[in-house]
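Supplementary Methods. Inverse-folding protocol.

Structures were first reduced to a discrete structure-token string of length 191. This string, shown here, constituted the complete conditioning input.
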């Protein structure tokens, strides 16, 4: 299964959610489906999408927050899983696309490639109850539906191929994206 297929499958569900992506391929593939003002592409900050998502979820408990992350990023910030477990934001879905590769930074293998490091097991061990592993597109869709129906923190580890987009390029940079994302949040709060 490819990450781009997973993103395409859930794209319509992201319309009314606050979405934070990690840098690189994941951000580009979501952007290629069509930018929305509620998407924040965290460029040049590997490992921090989950931290930003947690802050949003805690500060805006009435909003559903979806974090689109990668195995390399989670491995850089493993403490995020324990922090998520401690605060248990009921409105957060943390999707980890595990391709066993640091695809966006050179394609080096990550620790999950060998099969020794299991991010779903680490999330459970950290104290997160709702953890799913998806190896097929059907598994991923079912995990997403269950996570949306659960009023609790959810983690989905999606095993995807180590492939990325054909090109990289967005028509705006991080400062503009941050400004527009903030405005989207303020508009949601005022309505």
């Amino acid at each position: 299964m490819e990450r781009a297929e997973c993103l395409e499958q859930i794209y319509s569900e992201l319309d009314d959610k606050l979405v934070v992506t990690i840098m690189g391929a994941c951000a580009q593939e979501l952007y290629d489906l069509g930018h929305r003002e509620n998407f924040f592409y965290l460029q040049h900050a590997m490992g921090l999408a989950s931290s930003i998502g947690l802050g949003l979820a805690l500060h805006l408990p009435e909003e559903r927050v979806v974090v689109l992350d990668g195995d390399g990023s989670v491995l850089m910030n493993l403490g995020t899983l324990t922090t998520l477990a401690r605060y248990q934001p009921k409105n957060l879905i943390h999707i980890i696309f595990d391709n066993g590769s640091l695809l966006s930074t050179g394609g080096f293998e990550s620790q999950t490639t060998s099969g020794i490091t299991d991010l779903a097991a680490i999330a459970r061990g950290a104290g997160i109850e709702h953890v799913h592993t998806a190896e097929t597109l059907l598994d991923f869709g079912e995990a997403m539906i269950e996570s949306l129906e659960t009023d609790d923190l959810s983690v989905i580890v999606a095993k995807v191929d180590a492939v990325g987009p054909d090109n990289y390029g967005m028509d705006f940079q991080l400062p503009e994206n941050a400004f527009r994302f903030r405005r989207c949040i303020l508009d949601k709060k005022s309505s």
